[in-house]
Amino acid sequence: MNCRPALLVPALAGMMTACGGGAPGAPAPPALENQVVTTQVPGFPHAVTFCIPAGATRAIVALHGGGGNSSAIGYQLGLNSSTTATTTGTVNWTWLGAHKVMLVLPQGQHIDGSPGATTWSNYAMTSGQDDKAFLQALAAKIRTTYGLADVTLMGHSMGGTMANRMWCESPSTFNAYVSLAGPASARFQQAATPCVCTLGSATPPYLGLFGDADSVMQTSGNWTQPNWYVNPVVVWAGNAAFLDGTMIGEWHQQCDRVLQVCGTTLDLAGCQTSGNVDTWTSCGGKLVLKRVRGADHGVDAIAARMNPASPTVVMDTVMAFLAGQN
């Protein structure tokens, strides 16, 4: 994406002021600044950090995994230099500015007695909060407060499982959905609670990015199986935060998505391969599944198998996917 005009705007404004541009005696136009703002959505306890570059045109909400924190997911994506804090000095403004992306980092909550189990209520785990309502309110806040109509929800691990829940149950809340090593809960295999998107041609895009050597989701040798299993289940105090480690295998779920959205079937041999990445593209590019061969569960493990020389390769892949939807 060519962002040079946006990058030249502040400099051009400064040149006009220095050369007497504008009305005589008029104050110089305010300089555009990168900002980090941490606040809350009314009615919810989650702290939300907004990393706002000058000229942002879209927002990406990134959900951390179970037991994680909002700064660490930014670090894992190559967009924050700290795992414990997000400040104007730690954010990767170069990447955000070039792609005109406002990065939104919510902090997951935990149930009483399990302070380490910061997570999302996605049927595999529970945070003790109505995270579906929280994300709906957060999307609305982004659109009304910051004027950004294009809002993507992405998540890693249990954050990706939450993104899957939203795609199934509240698809119109976000413009696109991305899951990194976070398959849907097996709840959506039950007859009473299927994942059925009823938006037809307006069904939002979905990108899944998964390793086939994931030691948490047990994908090795099980890529096409109907179910994956979190094994061993991570144990926090009391272990009450983990509800069910049975997940839907991502390949199996993508087959269902493709059939539901555009009435076609996925061919296991019909992928395009580049390096260690196999890509299945369906429904005119709306549904994309990427298998990263040899990659374990972490974002860093996935990135290392994709391109170890690029710390932002995962986000670059996400942006390429989102650009293809416009």
UniProtKB/TrEMBL annotation:
The keyword Transcription appears for this protein: no
Coiled coil: none
Signal peptide start and end residues: 1-20
Protein name listed in UniProt: AB hydrolase-1 domain-containing protein
PROSITE patterns: PROKAR_LIPOPROTEIN (PS51257)
InterPro entries, alphabetized: AB_hydrolase_1, AB_hydrolase_fold, Plant_Biomass_Hydrol_Est
Keywords annotated in UniProt: Hydrolase, Signal
Listed GO MF terms: hydrolase activity
Domain of life: Bacteria
Pfam families cross-referenced by the UniProt entry: Abhydrolase_6 (PF12697)
